[in-house]
Amino acid sequence: xxxxxxxxxxxxxxxxxxxxxxxxxxxxxxxxxxxxxxxxxxxxxxxxxxxxxxxxxxxxxxxxxxxxxxxxxxxxxxxxxxxxxxxxxxxxxxxxxxxxxxxxxxxxxxxxxxxxxxxxxxxxxxxxxxxxxxxxxxxxxxxxxxxxxxxxxxxxxxxxxxxxxxxxxxxxxxxxxxxxxxxxxxxxxxxxxxxxxxxxxxxxxxxxxxxxxxxxxxxxxxxxxxxxxxxxxxxxxxxxxxxxxxxxxxxxxxxxxxxxxxxxxxxxxxxxxxxxxxxxxxxxxxxxxxxxxxxxxxxxxxxxxxxxxxxxxxxxxxxxxxxxxxxxxxxxxxxxxxxxxxxxxxxxxxxxxxxxxxxxxxxxxxxxxxxxxxxxxxxxxxxxxxxxxxxxxxxxxxxxxxxxxxxxxxxxxxxxxxxxxxxxxxxxxxxxxxxxxxxxxxxxxxxxxxxxxxxxxxxxxxxxxxxxxxxxxxxxxxxxxxxxxxxxxxxxxxxxxxxxxxxxxxxxxxxxxxxxxxxxxxxxxxxxxxxxxxxxxxxxxxxxxxxxxxxxxxxxxxxxxxxxxxxxxxxxxxxxxxxxxxxxxxxxxxxxxxxxxxxxxxxxxxxxxxxxxxxxxxxxxxxxxxxxxxxxxxxxxxxxx
Length: 641
Fold this sequence. Notes:
Blueprint: E1 4-5, E2 8-11, E3 16-18, E4 21-22, E5 26-28, E6 33-34, E7 37-40, E8 43-45, E9 48-49, E10 53-55, E11 60-61, E12 64-67, E13 70-72, E14 75-76, E15 80-82, E16 86-87, E17 90-93, E18 98-100, E19 103-104, E20 108-110, E21 115-116, E22 119-122, E23 125-127, E24 130-131, E25 135-142, E26 145-148, E27 151-153, E28 156-157, E29 161-168, E30 171-174, E31 178-180, E32 183-185, E33 189-190, E34 193-194, E35 207-209, H1 211-214, H2 232-235, E36 236-240, E37 246-250, E38 254-255, E39 270-273, E40 278-280, E41 290-296, E42 299-301, E43 304-306, E44 311-318, E45 329-331, H3 334-338, E46 347-350, E47 354-355, E48 394-403, E49 406-408, E50 418-422, E51 427-439, E52 444-445, E53 448-452, E54 456-468, E55 472-473, E56 476-479, E57 484-486, E58 489-496, E59 501-502, E60 505-509, E61 512-514, E62 517-524, E63 529-530, E64 533-537, E65 540-542, E66 545-546, E67 550-553, E68 559-560, E69 563-567, E70 570-572, E71 575-577, E72 581-584, E73 587-588, E74 601-603, H4 605-608, H5 611-616, E75 625-627, ...
Parallel strand pairs: 1-6, 2-7, 3-8, 4-9, 5-10, 6-11, 7-12, 8-13, 9-14, 10-15, 11-16, 12-17, 13-18, 14-19, 15-20, 16-21, 17-22, 18-23, 19-24, 20-25, 21-25, 22-26, 23-27, 24-28, 25-29, 26-30, 27-31, 28-32, 29-33, 32-35, 38-40, 45-46, 46-48, 47-48, 48-51, 49-51, 50-53, 51-54, 52-55, 53-56, ...
Antiparallel strand pairs: 33-34, 36-37, 39-44, 40-43, 41-42, 41-44, 72-73, 75-76
């Protein structure tokens, strides 16, 4: 029960906490409760605690319950509630202990005796420090210390109010305390009324400091003859704490504030930090998002980060959820979608429709977005996953839409929203990509460039234009070993300048497509061009529909309404519009309709827009499909619910 801390319970002699932070609330049911440490005989420096601290026993402090060591260049900002010996920074500073160049800004409430803005009891020393929170207690209440038997020097009580018996602006009363050069806020209220003590910088009343003086550097660095904090310019700076008051704040503790607006976080994503500063990075999130930390050019940075030069820090807005199958990371923004590349094995789920319009990313680190012109390469979206670092997790689109996908990477392979997705357990489902414009080289698709090794695609659709070289498809470029594509579709235009071009998939090897469709104008200048797939080698296609207006291939031998070439694969129950134009560079293509062949069985335009026809193929119109809205030409085709 004794010695409870946000980071450490008990710090023994010789121990230290440096450059550290604790942000959670802390509750102790015994003695010695602190936001960072319960009991310390060691040292705490350049550290902070921001959570609220509650102690039901004696000795409660915002940073430490009690200290016999040194607390320096540190701060506590949470509210503190205790019984006897309660302080904004420490419950008690024992003989040999000290508080130097430190501050406390939270409100302090003690239900017993000895309550202070910085410390409940000071038998050691306080130097070059200040407190700014309101203080209330029973007996012995002080702006800096409840009771003092040591020394308090060159410090400021900037509290707005003190409430309790035997109050004192610096401390309640002293036991042979040495006061030297201390100041108190002139406007401080004592039990609801102006202070009546005689201002004296060498007494427990302290000399007067106006609110204006409290907010300017000259009051602390010796310029105006008030406080004289050594090396103020290198340790402190003045910062507005709220809309009214400005107080000193440690330079290392400068808070980088992000706009609390989930709709426009990019305005505050990139912040240049002055050379030599040490900063505390924020842990708070924008509305509807989870702040996932900051990146510099080398990747993620720690929550306490020493800047040795001018650095660009990029906010990483993360996800709710744990990234596991039963509790996926939740994606609400384009930035979060882009950040999937930071954890390629995690599981994700869309919670909102996402627009990628204007996206101009390109950094391999994934830190570049539409606002990052300094690192954008002008090629649009950078595909998630590559040969060397494949995507092995999952994405559940939850029937949401990703619109405006633009990729212009004609010299790069494996191009799509995903570049390379691979592995058992890897899955992409229930996602709609609209208004896509995707250009790549080999293995190019609207959803993914390459999908392999037993991955699954279920309920995915792409509408737009896709162009590539070898293995180009409206949905996936190259579909490899063990992959299944179910209940999926593509619409728009697909152009391939190499072999293997298809409306849904460019090349299939030992993979299967079922209950899917393509309504695509397909043009291939090489061999193997088809309405659904260019080439299917092993595996198969079943119960699917080629609704293409036209298919044009480089050679009539390997051009088909469903597939350009079939090698050892099983096709069954497939149909194609009999009005489809099927041509090739070397002449028209002779079509032999067959539900088990490369051209599929004939389908009339009327059947193509009739729900009964698809239900007869086994399509699920209760849970998965519905007939879409009528187009301008009076047609409507199956779409995902």
